[in-house]
Design a protein that fits this description.
alpha+beta; two-stranded antiparallel ribbon; 5 helices; 20% helix
């Protein structure tokens, strides 16, 4: 498959990561050694070595940033460490969420015994009530949220939204299995509805402003059309 390039300059490249694709091989995916990763596909597509600067969960789609040169990786990764990159996600969640809010709650790191501070700012963009029974209710309610994490913890957005009782649709770990089944059955979309929509930052080498946006996957736009959200 050909991956969608969202941005490219002499130092960086940004790609629109598909849902259900590993960024690269890791100890967390030891049983996936025969599976082509995003890095495998992109390096073959562009015939050059690349270096991922951050991570997206396997089931999350959207903007992924990579460096073209190994010795410049630290320069760009420092933007993430110092929270100098504005990350914006869109998610479809269970229920009618508040109009806006801040989730400031620690999240476990890769060391399951260690919690780290984590903060997510959110705003509701759309909502809908469907006349479809989903246990234990006669109707199904959903919201489209804009999410701006100010930290980058493992599974942060998925954990935070579950914590406020608005889990992301299609989340197999932190979500609601009844709503996940309904979307898979009624809309043929058994996907995680979490999309890394955009990144914006000051380029540490050129000093210019960079804004990168990734188009929504087809299953997202299908739901948007059916819900008449856009």
């Amino acid at each position: 498959m050909t991956l969608e390039i969202c941005y490219q300059d002499d130092y960086l490249i940004a790609v629109n990561k598909p849902c259900n694709m590993l960024v690269h091989r890791s100890y967390m995916a030891r049983n996936m050694d025969d599976e082509a990763t995003l890095l495998d596909l992109l390096e073959a597509q562009l015939t050059q070595k690349l270096y991922p600067l951050h991570r997206l969960d396997r089931k999350t789609s959207g903007v992924l940033l990579l460096a073209k040169k190994r010795h410049e990786v630290a320069v760009f990764q420092s933007l993430f460490v110092q929270n100098k990159i504005q990350k914006t996600y869109h998610a479809i969640v269970r229920g009618h969420a508040p109009e806006s809010g801040v989730i400031d709650s620690p999240v476990k790191g890769r060391d399951a015994n260690a919690y780290k501070e984590a903060c997510t700012v959110y705003k509701k963009l759309k909502e809908i009530t469907l006349p479809i029974p989903v246990y234990p209710y006669q109707n199904a309610r959903y919201s489209l949220l804009e999410l701006k994490p100010t930290t980058g913890r493992l599974h942060q957005l998925r954990i935070h939204l579950n914590k406020i009782s608005h889990p992301i649709v299609g989340d197999p770990k932190y979500g609601d299995r009844f709503h996940n089944r309904m979307f898979a059955s009624n809309f043929k979309t058994p996907h995680l509805f979490l999309h890394a929509l955009s990144l914006e930052f000051i380029h540490p080498i050129t000093k210019g402003f960079v804004f990168i946006k990734a188009s929504f996957p087809a299953y997202y736009t299908s739901i948007f059309n059916q819900f008449m959200w856009f």
